[in-house]
Automatic annotation (TrEMBL):
One function term, GO molecular function aspect: glycosyltransferase activity
Cross-referenced InterPro entries: Glyco_trans_1 (IPR001296), Glyco_trans_4-like_N (IPR028098)
Protein name stated in the entry: Glycosyl transferase, group 1
Xref: CDD domains: GT4_PimA-like (cd03801)
Keywords: Transferase
SUPFAM superfamilies per the UniProt record, alphabetical: UDP-Glycosyltransferase/glycogen phosphorylase
Residue ranges annotated for the Glycosyl transferase family domain, each copy included: 180-341
Pfam families reported in the protein's UniProt record: Glyco_transf_4 (PF13439), Glycos_transf_1 (PF00534)
Ranges where the Glycosyltransferase subfamily 4-like N-terminal domain occurs: 63-163
Originating species: hydrothermal vent metagenome
Amino acid sequence: MKILEICLSSGIGGLELYMVKVTRFLAGHVKPAKVMISKGSFLEKSFSEQGVNYDNLNVVAHHFPIIASLQLAKYIRKNQIDIIHVHHGKDLFLCVLARVFARRGKIIYTRQMSLTRYKHDLYHKFLYRNVDAYVVITQALYDDAIKYLPLEKKNIHLLYYGVPKPSTDKTDCTRYLNDNGLNIGSTTIAIFGRVEELKGQHLLIDAVIQLTKKGHEAQVAIIGHVMDEKYFSQLQGKIKETNLEERIKYLGFHNDPVSIMPCFDVVVLATRCETFGLVLPEAMRSGTCVVGTDCGGVPEIIKHGETGLLFKPDDADDLAEKLQLLIEDKDYRMRLTNAGKLDADDRFSEEQHFDKLQNILNGLISGNEN
């Protein structure tokens, strides 16, 4: 089975990181895949640093799709590719044309974004007639596919993201918190992700302002790349205006966030509407309580009141109420934490994810996709 992993995205996000994980898994457990990425992209940098061999298309694929697809078809024939794994939606047309021109290869497309309209026109019928396995990461996306796409149900697969089992090498949390100016005795809340308005760091700051006024000693760690300098400056201004510099800390980017998640009492995902929210099962498997937005795929991860808490999107007041419950009742917080870890270990393990992915790939070769 010869697999081509292709993603011509220039971005940095969940789908790019997922491609890296899949490529690494295939190399270690199945057979090294061929890799096709864009020049100058995050993926090129990542694979170069890991010593993974990769190839680039010599034309701008989305501007000249026919020429690019002919080049890709030649590549598919030359390397005798059996399966083309597409990660980026904008690459799907290119890969379908290449498959048609090459007259070989089955297409698996992992979809990580929601759908909003019916796609039963001639173009999309042609496109999805050539997709042999359509993989989605949430039940909501599965339902979207059934509703909006001209696909047979047997070709649609629900495959939750998987996260690795936490390392046995424990971070010295006391030292980590002290080094970053955080008080060991206070409830410590972390928010991970790119620092930009969409990720909702301002909601957590507003919630902590409310909690502080009520006398609760909550403290916050904001962890991630600053993507929007103006927004970051606004956050810093609000923290300074409310005299919370000692309670709310920006700790920058961390290259292994899972390793420090056990150092926090609560991890918050405040994105307005996240398709999945990988940080949540990562935190749950790490043994940390989670609070997330009641939108998108998050309610599939968090069973409200059982494995974590949900709050209304864009509602700092509701977030403050949920955090107050966890601050005031440590026993309740620990029950949620323990139940969340058991649930995440069962539903979101990386081991289980890749077993199911391998079954899908094997099914494509054998002709039985189920």
